[in-house]
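job 3f2a | input accepted
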Amino acid sequence: MLHSCKAMSNLPSMACELASGVAAMTDEWNDLRLVLAVVRSGGLTGAAQMLRIDHSTAFRRLAAIENRLGQPLFERLPGGVYEPSPAAERMAAAAERMEDEALALARDLAGRDQRLSGELRVTSSETLAQGVLMPHLASFRRAHPGIAIELTIDNRVLSLTRREADVALRPMRPRESDVWGRKLADVAWTVYGAGAYLKMHGALSDPIDLKTHALIGWEESAAGINSAEWLWAKVPAAAIVYRTNSLINQLAAAKAGIGLAVLPCYLGDREPAVTRALAKPLVELARELWIVTHTDLRRTARVRAFFDVVGEGLAAERALFEGRAPDRQPNSARPRRRRA
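job 3f2a | predicted structure (340 res):
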């Protein structure tokens, strides 16, 4: 916090005015950031989380802004929804332009950084982090002990433009024009079950057999997830006996013998407690694994080092990702004949 100019009598008046001006600009930027965060999240709780401040602080700051402007910026709706006024939308648009410029400058400076030290922010899906990634992160740490890794496990596509991450491992081909990276492998999926379940109920000779089994699937809010929509199209709702929003939990449910689960091969083939209920991968669920960064960061030493160690390490496991690793299918899990 800047001290008042009166308390700093040794400061020349011009320097004092400059310090006051910087403080005022900082306050204005923080106000704009808060309004932008409320507009983006649709409420004060989400805005506080975005800015990493507590809800009461966000509430007081927004009230102070509205009091200073002499008008409300948001209409408070039921459920904690904040509907922006035209003034709030104009403020948010201005804040977004300022944010874009600040982020572009930060990326430009980071792109020139040739130090193999500092922090590297990485994002990955839950299944990749759980199943395959950790040994490669350990190799990276041994090779570059000066680099601290911050791993965000999130199944959403985080924004590289807004520096939500420096490097992303994504189960899909990137669509953004300002993203640079490479494909590491194709990703295969198939159906898995516990050995005891398969011994009792038999394996599958065709995906159509799924409707005769107890199935583990996604909760109904999982619209847009490819494996969820594929399963919903293949089987009646009554066949899904257990629902969850986590693939790791679906694997745990399959291990417990609750039913069959549709999983990526790099997750299912490495787990000794389950085996393939359907021998071949499902062509309709094939995906790609990519390692990507923002084009402005591609020459940053930390990013290049991560691509070299972790990217190459994951690419070397292409057979596992593509479902070509040796499978463990017990003789007792022979496919049963389909019901008429």
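job 3f2a | The chain has two domains: 9-110, 118-340.
job 3f2a | closed
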